[in-house]
Amino acid sequence: MMKKFHLFAGLITSSLLSSVTLFADHDEHYEDAPVKPLSLLVSGGYDFGGDKLLEIEYFDGSVDTLRTGQGFNVNVGGELRPGASQDFSIRGTAGFRFSSNRESDVDASIYSFPIELSANWYPSRDLRLGIGYVEHLNPTLDSRDFGDTNFEDASGPKYEIAYKGFALTFTNIDYKDQDGFTYSADTVGLSYSFAF
Length: 196
Prior knowledge:
This protein has one domain (2-23, 39-195): Porin (Beta Barrel), CATH 2.40.160. Helix content is 11%, strand content 55%. It has one helix spanning 2-22; strands at residues 38-48, 52-57, 63-67, 71-80, 88-100, 109-121, 127-142, 149-150, 154-163, 166-171, 174-176, 182-184, 187-195. An 8-stranded antiparallel β-barrel has the order 1-4-5-6-7-9-10-13. A two-stranded antiparallel sheet has the order 2-3. A hairpin with a 7-residue loop joins strand 4 and strand 5 (88-100). The longest helix is centred in the N-terminal third of the chain and has 21 residues, at 2-22.
């Protein structure tokens, strides 16, 4: 797992460095554009990945798989630009992550409450590179048909590369259940955020 993480971190770092040149903004008026020192921040997206927690097979032969990392997320928080900086910001959000099976006659879902804090660099007007910390509070597999699984609060690093609000993310995190078993909840995600 650590080899996979280091490989991915290296690829992200290389991509970030090359993106600075690729998306460099040469708008001479950019430096004069006004910046709000504090903005409301809203984001949402979908995460892919993590270990398999539950596989549900239906009578028609179709299968649903719930994984530790998968699910929709919505987050609300703020973005602080110290000294009305053009190049740097601190973002903080709290939100909700949720995924469920598609059939209503079998009840199963996984959810958590993520809190995120990140430092962000803007090499150009539309490009944002972020690195931060995320904590998932109360991760739970909730199912009346298969039983509930409660995980300990979990934390880890999160990396982002964003262009015009659209971001590719990577989160490195593990869940541990009440019996001491550990599950990878590493994810690759797509998200959109806007500050106003």
